[in-house]
Design goal:
Protein name: Uma2 family endonuclease
Pfam families: Uma2
Structural class: alpha+beta
Distance between the termini: 32 Å
GO molecular function, one term: endonuclease activity
CATH superfamily: tt1808, chain A
Largest sheet: 6 strands, mixed
Organism: Thermoleptolyngbya oregonensis NK1-22
CATH topology: tt1808, chain A
Keywords: Endonuclease, Hydrolase, Nuclease
Amino acid sequence: MIAEPQPHRLSPQEYLDWEATQDIKHEYLDGEVFAMTGSTIAHNLIALNLASTLKAFLRGRGCRVFIADVKVQVSERGAYFYPDVMVSCDERDRPAVNLIQHPCLIVEVLSPTTEAFDRGEKFRRYRQLSALQEYVLIDATQISVDRFRRLSDTQWELQSFTTEDTLELTSIGWQGAIALLYEDVIFESIPPSS
């Protein structure tokens, strides 16, 4: 989740040097630094459910699953983001210590405050990653998943999923029930209006 930008602009290297000394995570976009805020229990459970399932599935296949605290570098000029779940099967990412550059799958768990950014500007930036094959958006307020699959350099296909559906991630050869992503999730109930 993104909070308020910091007051001054930084170069990508200044950001990386500065952020390595910080107690909290910060994303970077066009010279601006954004502090990451906490998330809800639903958000955390959804990311954990997917990451742990993918980790077990991909064990021994040369892919690595990352969750929340690993940043992705979109380009040499930035942006740098912290996806909720990310998978890289690319050998170029094997020696990586601080960031991933060639993910095949990125997943963002949506919140009301980040949904527009995750669907818009963030996805526009992620599309610059040539290795990225799928971008998945999982709603944390209701059972709803959107998967964008790369068809070509300029074309992406959207498929939406709900409660009874099976999500297929062709980038890593996995499929599973949407219900699995929402295991143990309790949605916030909205009181009826009077």
